[in-house]
Structures are given as structure tokens and as C-alpha cells.
Amino acid sequence: MAHLLRLCARGFNRTLARQLAEHDISFGQWVFLRLLWKQEGLTQRELSEQANLTEPTVHTALAKLEKLNIVTRRTQDGNRRKQHVYLTERGRSLQKVLEPLAVEANESGLAGLDAEDRRRLQDMLLTILGNLTREEAEAEALGLKVPPTRGFGV
Prior knowledge:
Elements: H1 2-21, H2 27-38, E1 42-43, H3 44-51, H4 55-67, E2 71-76, E3 79-87, H5 89-110, H6 115-141
Antiparallel strand pairs: 1-3, 2-3
Helix pairs in contact: 1-5, 2-5, 3-4
């Protein structure tokens, strides 16, 4: 089951990535745009938590988005350590162009499933996600962490 879900997620991501590339936006940049379209002014740490990525990864991505004039980073309330991220006008305007591409990618993957099947699939995936989130929280409470992948020879 996990393997099938991973392959489906990979397929959705690759389909969307191809479409985004036509607009010179990477899939990684898309992740941050989606979050910022929902809420601007997030700190790099908040973006890191919401995207489930490390802060150095977020910093690098934001630097690229800044070079492309898609986001700007500013400090607030005299706190020079915390940088808040805001969309530029260009970043905001990309929403009208890019969000329909995500809808298209979803439609492509869900072709052949009627509305009831889609609703049931979504409910099932939310149940699975809830189960796994709960399991991870329980493991973390016991001090068990996901081992790093580096160092494992293949």
C-alpha cells in the first residue's frame, strides 16, 4: 500500500512539475508559493515546519524566489533575527496561473473516478494520514526518532 501511495504521489508531483516548468517555477518553489498564498508573513521557521523541510533548505529556496522577484524577506518589530516572507506582486499574480495547473494534475490522476469514489478516496487517505501522524507522535513521545538516511549504504 505504501509503495502504491508513494508512486501515486510521485506521479502527481511529476505531472505538476512538468507544467510548472513551462512557467519557470520548480516543484520546490511551488511548495512555498502554496503556503504563502494562504498566509503571507510567515517566518522561515514557520515555513520550514509547514513544508516539513529543514530551515537551510527553506533559506536556499527563498533566496532563489527572492532573486526571481517572487518573494521578499523583511524583519518586523525590531527583531532582526526573524525574517518574515511576503509575496511580491509577481508572486501574487502567479496564483491565478499556477493553481489551475495543480487542479489539472489532480484531474489527470483522478480520471475515471466518479465524485463518490473521489470523496471516499479522500476520506480514506485522511484516515491513513491521521493513523500515521498519531503513530509518529506516540513514537516521538517514547523518544523514538526516524533514523537519518545518510550513512546507510545501498
